Hints:
TIM Barrel; 9-stranded mixed beta sheet; 3-stranded antiparallel beta sheet; globular
Amino acid sequence: MSSQPLILNPDDAGFGVYVHWPFCAQxxxxxxxxxxxxxxxxxEARFLAAYKQELAHTAELIGKREVSSIFIGGGTxxxxxxxxxAGILDAIAGLWSVRSGAEITIEANPNSVxxxxxxxxxxAGVNRVSLGVQSLxxxxxxxxxRLHSVAEAKTAIGIAAQTFDRFSFxxxxxRPGQTPEQWRRELAEALALGSRHLSLYQLTIEPETAxxxxxxxxxxxxxxxxxxxxxxxxxxxxxxxxxxRQYEISNHAAPGEESRHNILYWRYAEYAGVGPGAHxxxxxxxxxxxxxxxxxxxxxxxxxxxxxxxxxxxxxxxxDEEADEMLLMGLRMADGLxxxxxxxxxxxxxxxxxxxxxxxxxxxxxxxxxxxxxGEGLDEIRACLAPGLGSATGTSQGNRGGGRIRVTRAGxxxxxxxxxxxxxxxxxxASTMAQDARWTSASEASIERA
Length: 450
């Protein structure tokens, strides 16, 4: 598969399929994903049949689409047999057309990586793998509840590099007791392993996890805000120096190596969610709908066998809800949010006074029309990331003067607060055009003062 950037334009943000595999060999203490341990195993043939049936129901619901990306996540999808993966991918290709060069990713844990199995995934059509390494320190892997060793992780990375055109791996930092110098050494080792994409996440305490219980009992001390910020800065400094630019808060890649499927989420495009506990955003009759399926694996399979699908929620989203979701997702990206698209899909503008205030506080960058390439790193990533900002399309088509906003380094640290302030400053209805004009004027003046 080619690793050339996938250029997206505003009228074709892409359509993705997310397939959730719910089983793991062990539940990690920090994980709040829909994952389940079945020591006696599972009926893989039964689940494959259910995936095919739910995919068929989804295709009947939404109609024809061209698939630009497929992501098989979990759970631990690398516990699946290659023929099961092949069956799922063949079903997708039989229901929709699959774009030439589409990105097809599978997640894998290092302890379940075998060269023969990876070759089987490749033969099935997978062209990218994402490895859940999480740490390059054996004692930290044990603390995180991981079953693999550092040696197994490095072996898995080597197999991935030999088997697939593109691969990525995850690390978790800001762990209890971790010092800046320790993280520098570990990240340097990770960068030396040659991946052109890294997902680097700060450890967070998620509800209803084992770590939450330990933290509440005072048995798990997390880094304070100052130390966490220092570790974050080290991450940006070292990845940038290695040519892996931050294109999303926790993701870093060489040009053209960005996760196209995840960009589809952050760009608020359409995607189908299939499998136990999967979420989707599909458009039916011009209306965006939020879907979710039964979380219990066996319960999901039984629902599909009985009704043809495992949905437990299928809700039409109002334009205000679409605007909130687009804002939250878009501001995770390094090149930010296209305000014209926000107005088009969500029917809102943002009060220029609020944007100017956040900009003056150092939390936002504002990029007026014609200045979309202004600022740190945008020229390098614009071709890969933003619908309408690729070299094939120039600036955003149909832009009514909205420009873009993006969070700064300081803004990323308090992203939720920035999103809340902007959401509260939405202006809807007929006043949108006037608000766009006021914002353009205010933001131009703001930049000239900088």
